[in-house]
């Protein structure tokens, strides 16, 4: 009896502590805590992975650093929480993380029934197939009857089944939980093809197969995958802050402001758009509930979108991804920031 | 309070041991119910605040994802409800085979450890200590990697006979095209099992009355072979086989033992068998040596000593811990998701991810495991009661 009583008290204490963690607007909670808690991928080179010194690097990581720069004026005040594909939505819903920035596809269900609000996509992706050259396949349409490796807990599983059904092809899907194990199964030849977002396949081809030249990514892109950060329903101010932090990076590229020249630009700028973005003309920061130098801090400490892209996934990195859909709107892409005014 | 003074040592009401006991129980029960109520209402409230969908409506929506193997027919056009059942059946499939293999292996190894043959006993010791001291997840990874890496691709598959292929896509073999005759054959097999049971009971009764035990073996064997054959013949004696053949990337037709199922079954049954071996060994040692000596002194043959004296007494010690091992095996099968076997946890996890309804999904997983485990427990407890000493307590 005594032992049971003790256990019951312990359970009660723990659950009380756990449920009282989420209260009030997110910005206040983040400021009070002194750091931003950001949900990222457990390790996907180019998007979010720790480097050899243990610092998180990647396109998704930069979103969180930028938000920290906007809120605290210091991009280091971020705690990164690596999340599996299955944990990620629950972690954000339950308040364990303030932002989910983990190559997550923006879909209607997630945006509504799952209680998430998606900020602008930071990478427009699409699902593709990675196969060995030995297989002699030139198109995804030739994959009838193929065994396909896929990671569980992703929109990828559904796209895969949809594509094979739409084309009247027979599918054997081998669904494995952890990315490393899916990679191992593909490398061992358990599957004929590996399906995932094309950017992720590029990362896997570059880093995880023994000889990248023996593998090709098939030309077909079978889905739209707008990869976007997300926040919880019910806190519009926080939603705005994350959204406009991303727009600041995109605008920065549009106006030619980089982390290297931002100080000079701030001093000499004549363009009212630039002056508002960098806080030379005040008002924008106050509207967001942030310091007037929020935009300056983002670009100074993290860089504009182009800098982040080139450093993490661009042609000079192992992933060798072209800008494609992710170019600026005036260069044939979809990156379009609304006016800062 | 109508009972006179029983247990009331003249002390005041609140110092009464019985009253205190009752109050303590009421308080604890109240706390427990309150805690559960608080957790449930808090969860519902939070889900509402965050506008997360609730309810079981998602079960009838189209699942839209593929599952690599299934006992019942399944396509991505089926519902989430069906895919969860597919997962549950896959869990049960691996559990049933796993329990049987682990029991047989465990018994053999357990007896071997007691062998007077030095080599056999030492090998059994190495087996037990090796397998039970390595985490199961690692063993599963090991078997899965061994199967997928060491076996050839489908185009270079090992071919044993026409239609028997072994490759890193699994073991493919011919399987009868299921017809009416097969159904009748299975019914015949069930009838044979019942017939053997009845024969055994009759033999016991006759032995009790007359002292002579009628021969059960020959009629039993006749029923076991005869009845299914008769059923099969009545059904038109179908002989068509679905023979696997290489078409395109993979084999089509026939039956398949997938690498995922093989790795999981191998890992689970070897791991559990090492524990069962120890339980069996303990059970045998628990029967005093004097029992064997006494039986031999009565002139019983070695086989009869084991069957009539050793085994019934050892089983009483073995069954309760054995039940725990069966339960462990069933629950450990949830590690399947690590190597891509579509078990209950795997399919339910994908469902949770597609629908975002984690609370309902996890509750269903827990309920399913609880049901399976309690069923096994109930059966094993019944069996334990059946073989335990009667009138001894």
TrEMBL record, chain A:
Family designation: Belongs to the bacterial solute-binding protein 3 family.
Record-linked CDD domains: PBP2_BztA
Occurrences of domain Solute-binding protein family 3/N-terminal (ranges): 35-265
Source species: Novispirillum itersonii (Aquaspirillum itersonii)
InterPro entries (UniProt xref): Bact_solute-bind_prot3, SBP_3_CS, Solute-binding_3/MltF_N
Protein name: General L-amino acid transport system substrate-binding protein
UniProt GO BP: amino acid transport
Keywords linked to the UniProt accession: Signal, Transport
Position of the signal peptide: 1-23
Biological classification of the source: Bacteria, Pseudomonadati, Pseudomonadota, Alphaproteobacteria, Rhodospirillales
UniProtKB/TrEMBL annotation, chain B:
A GO MF term: transmembrane transporter activity
Keyword Ribosomal protein: no
PROSITE patterns: ABC_TM1
Domain ABC transmembrane type-1: 88-380
SUPFAM superfamilies reported for this sequence: MetI-like
Compartment annotation: Cell inner membrane; Cell membrane
Domain of life (superkingdom): Bacteria
A Pfam family the protein falls into: BPD_transp_1
Gene3D superfamilies found in the cross-reference section: MetI-like (1.10.3720.10)
One Gene Ontology cellular component: ATP-binding cassette (ABC) transporter complex
Classification via PANTHER family: AMINO-ACID ABC TRANSPORTER PERMEASE PROTEIN YHDX-RELATED (PTHR30614:SF37), MEMBRANE COMPONENT OF AMINO ACID ABC TRANSPORTER (PTHR30614)
Protein name, per record: General L-amino acid transport system permease protein
């Amino acid at each position: 009896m005594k032992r049971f009583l003790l256990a019951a008290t312990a359970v009660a204490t723990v659950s009380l502590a756990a449920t009282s963690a989420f209260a009030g607007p997110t910005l206040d909670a983040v400021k009070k805590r002194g750091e931003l808690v950001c949900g990222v991928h457990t390790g996907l080179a180019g998007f979010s992975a720790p480097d050899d010194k243990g610092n998180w690097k990647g396109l998704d990581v930069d979103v969180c650093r930028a938000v920290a720069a906007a809120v605290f004026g210091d991009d280091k005040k971020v705690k990164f929480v690596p999340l599996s594909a299955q944990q990620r939505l629950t972690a954000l819903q339950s308040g364990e993380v303030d932002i989910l920035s983990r190559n997550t596809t923006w879909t209607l269900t997630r945006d509504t029934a799952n209680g998430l609000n998606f900020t602008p996509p930071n990478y427009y992706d699409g699902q593709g197939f990675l196969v060995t050259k030995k297989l002699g396949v030139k198109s995804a349409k030739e994959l009838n009857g193929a065994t396909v490796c896929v990671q569980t807990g992703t929109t990828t599983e559904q796209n895969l089944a949809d594509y094979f059904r739409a084309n009247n092809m027979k599918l054997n899907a081998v669904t494995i939980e952890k990315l490393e194990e899916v990679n191992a199964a593909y490398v061992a030849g358990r599957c004929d093809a590996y399906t995932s977002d094309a950017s992720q396949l590029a990362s896997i081809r570059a880093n995880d197969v023994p000889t990248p030249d023996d593998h090709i990514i098939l030309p077909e892109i079978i889905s739209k995958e707008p990869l976007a950060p997300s926040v919880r329903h019910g806190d519009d101010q926080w939603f705005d802050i994350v959204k406009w932090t991303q727009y600041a990076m995109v605008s920065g590229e549009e106006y030619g402001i980089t982390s290297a020249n931002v100080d000079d630009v701030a001093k000499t700028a004549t363009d009212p758009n630039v002056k508002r973005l960098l806080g030379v003309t005040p008002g924008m920061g106050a509207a967001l509930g942030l310091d007037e130098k929020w935009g300056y801090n983002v670009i100074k400490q993290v860089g504009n979108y182009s800098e982040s892209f080139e450093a993490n996934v661009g042609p000079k990195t192992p992933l060798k991804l072209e800008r494609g859909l992710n170019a600026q709107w005036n260069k044939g892409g979809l990156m379009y920031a609304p006016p800062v005014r | 309070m109508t009972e006179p003074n029983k247990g009331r040592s003249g002390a005041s009401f609140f110092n009464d041991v019985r009253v205190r006991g009752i109050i303590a129980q009421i308080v604890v029960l109240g706390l427990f119910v309150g805690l559960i109520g608080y957790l449930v209402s808090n969860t519902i409230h939070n889900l509402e605040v965050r506008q997360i969908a609730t309810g079981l409506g998602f079960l009838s929506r189209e699942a839209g994802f593929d599952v690599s193997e299934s006992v019942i027919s399944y396509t991505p056009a089926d519902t989430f409800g069906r895919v969860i059942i597919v997962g549950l059946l896959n869990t049960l499939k691996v559990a049933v085979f796993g329990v049987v293999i682990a029991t047989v292996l465990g018994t053999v190894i357990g007896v071997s450890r007691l062998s007077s043959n030095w080599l056999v006993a030492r090998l059994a010791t190495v087996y037990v200590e090796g397998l039970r001291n390595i985490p199961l997840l690692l063993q599963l990874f090991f078997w899965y990697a061994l199967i997928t890496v060491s076996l050839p691709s489908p185009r270079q598959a090992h071919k044993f006979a026409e239609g028997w292929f072994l490759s890193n896509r699994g073991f493919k073999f011919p399987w009868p095209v299921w017809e009416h005759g097969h159904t009748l054959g299975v019914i015949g097999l069930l009838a044979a099992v019942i017939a053997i049971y009845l024969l055994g009971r009759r033999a016991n009764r006759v032995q009790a009355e007359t002292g002579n035990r009628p021969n059960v073996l020959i009629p039993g064997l006749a029923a076991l072979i005869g009845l299914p054959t008769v059923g099969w013949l009545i059904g038109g004696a179908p002989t068509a086989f679905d023979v696997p053949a290489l078409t395109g990337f993979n084999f089509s037709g026939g039956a398949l033992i997938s690498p995922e199922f093989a790795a999981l079954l191998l890992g689970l049954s070897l791991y559990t068998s090492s524990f069962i071996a120890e339980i069996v060994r303990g059970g045998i040692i628990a029967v005093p040596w004097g029992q064997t000596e006494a039986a031999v002194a009565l002139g019983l043959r070695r086989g009869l000593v084991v069957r009539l004296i050793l085994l019934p007494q050892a089983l009483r010690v073995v069954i309760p811990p054995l039940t725990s091992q069966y339960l462990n095996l069933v629950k450990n099968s949830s590690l399947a998701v690590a190597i891509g076997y579509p078990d209950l946890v795997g399919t339910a996890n994908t469902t949770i991810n597609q629908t975002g309804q984690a609370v309902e999904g996890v509750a269903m997983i827990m309920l399913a495991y609880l049901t399976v485990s309690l069923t096994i427990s109930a059966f094993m407890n019944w069996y334990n009661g059946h073989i335990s000493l009667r009138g001894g307590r």
